[in-house]
Amino acid sequence: MSLGARTDKLNKYNINLLEEVDHILNSHEKVKHKFKIASITSKWRGWVIPFHFGKQQVFGDNFLLVGDAAGLANAYYKEGVGTGMMSGILAVKTIKEAIRINDFLSKTLNKHQKNLKSEFGKLLKFIYFTLRLMRFKQIFYRIVSLFKKRVERKSEKMIIKRSY
Predict the structure, then answer these.
(1) How far is it, in rounded angstroms, from Cα 104 to Cα 97?
(2) Would you tell me how many other CB atoms lie within 10 Å of the CB of residue 123?
């Protein structure tokens, strides 16, 4: 089971996620019956999912950032394996060029940031937008219903394009 929230909101509203999980498992009508005889087998763990792409530089003299370090986690799905792997592939392209010209300074490595923005910029902006929009459930559901068929038509092409 996972439960996530923005740290700033947890602090602002004094929310304890452990208490929230416990409350959901013990009292939510759609969930509590599934955990009636369950027991905790280990201590709860938590971590930050960094979805801050575009707010920091992902290159510098002699370094490139990829995956979570570059803020490429997908906050909507709470994962970053796909974006992390692809950012590694893009980093290799930049590194190959740096090796070819024997220049590892930021003026050469800045191509990595441009490649990441080209590959993930629209996706990550869309995710950020939809997460903000989800606060207004009725509007969000209406927009989803309007675009559902369009996304379904395009999904096969998107999957093929993103299959490496």
Answers:
(1) 9
(2) 16
